[in-house]
Design a protein that fits this description.
Length: 221
Amino acid sequence: MGAGEFSRESLLKDLSSMVASERVFSDTETLKKYAQDTSRAPSRMPDVVVKVTSTAEIQKVVKYANEKSIPVTPRSSAVGFYGAGIPQEGGIIVDMTLMKRIMRVDTRNKWVLIEPGVTYGELQKELAKHGMRALNPLLPHQDKSVITSTLEREPKLTPKHHLDETILTMEMVLPTGDLFRTASCSARVQWRFMPLPLKKCRTRCIPTCATPWARALTGTG
């Protein structure tokens, strides 16, 4: 068990006080599903899965895990080609697939503000309403998180941007549970994107919202 000396029962009780109890899972069937992704990485079981819906919930879980030295693994979609969403030491999986807000589409400057649960299929559908599309990697999986794909540096198909940093600004949750914002996010709190905390390297940083580039359907930029 990756949660140190703490029993799963006490872990479930504590986490259920931070998020709705129906979004806290410890049944074997659910844990097996989260023990693997679409990669060939070896499967490893978490102790608990928590489905979060907001930055505040992530902060609560991360602060708690940091205080108790419980490993935390962030996950934004079930599609992962590198095994990054598989827990190394059990502990808590923070599932952000319910964080699906597309907060802003800026057609003039060609960027969008999204949360980590937004997939390529969902983003393309929204951008099509504005005559735009996302900067895609090669054959993007429609169910993969856009932010995860970008952070994993999957090369973009548009030559102008294939080596660019396509995330413009972000908000992160640090290992302590505090927020850290970059670029425009540091001045405008409504532009959010976040990662997770680390205590003794037991928790990873993760994005919960970001502003990647988009491009016009008929353009090259």
